[in-house]
Structure formats: structure tokens, C-alpha cells
Amino acid sequence: MAxxxxxxxxxxxxxxxxxxxxxxxxxxxxxxxIDSLKHPFLLLTTTDPQFVPxxxxxxxxxxxxxxxxVDTSKIGVTLEPSGLQFGAPAQMKVWYDGAGGDLNGDGVxxxxxSQIEAKLLGLWYREDDSEQWEKLGASQSLxxxxxxxxxxxxxxxxIAESLLEWSVGW
Length: 170
Known about the structure:
The protein is mainly beta.
């Protein structure tokens, strides 16, 4: 029996060509169980992919295939090729409002979840599975329930509460 994903995205993985010197954006949306609308989950914009591991510097107008993979069980996003570096940072925005306010996964949206959101929730990254998670200085919007960050390079990103690697439950 197949498990239903915690959040219904219109795509769980997508690829696109990023071109040095051209703005390219992709957006992944989710369907809500409370209405029939599509809501944003992730927006990624690139303009200056500069260095590709194993390939080297990209000339103006050259491109690189970027793959975005989402793990909704932990609001995790993996961006590849890992280690891709940007001249002007790529912009990533991730919305966590699909959790419906229940940020600790106990089935109830209450004051505990509000405290987690306001004081503990953050955007974290790690280079690979062997590395420790590190908190980023991402900009959080409590109104939009989102994090925005200028990415200097690609790796793995996750919205989580603390270094204990507890992740927001969907």
C-alpha cells in the first residue's frame, strides 16, 4: 500500500536550464485540503550560475541543468548540482504554511506552534549527509509563513526547529 505524501505538490522534482546572464525562475505549488486553490511552496530564481563542479567556469550565455527535489516529510529541498556556485546569488523562497499551523506535528495548531514559529523555526543547510546542519540567516515572514534566502551555492536545505534536526511535520 502506497503512502500518501504529507503535502500534495504539483511536482516533487523538476529540472530546468539555468543560463548565465539570464533570469530563470521555477515555482512549485501545493494543493490545500481546505480549498481548491494552488498555493506557493517554493520559488527559485537564478541569473548567474558561475561555477559547476566537475566542469568549471561558465561563460556568459552557457547553461547548467538544475534539479530541484522536494521532501515534504521534512520541508526539505535538495538543489543540484551540489556545489554549483553563483556570481550573483540565486534567490530561494520556501513557504511552510502547508503545515496548517501544526509545526510540532502533534495534530493541533496551538500556542506551542506559534512559539516554535516565532522563536525557533529557521532555514538550515548542509553540504551533504556527512555534514552537520547549520542555520542560515534567512529572512522569515510570519505573515507569509515563508523564508527567503540568497543562495551563494547549492546543497541541501530544510526548514527545522533546531540543531536536533527535528523537522516541521506535515
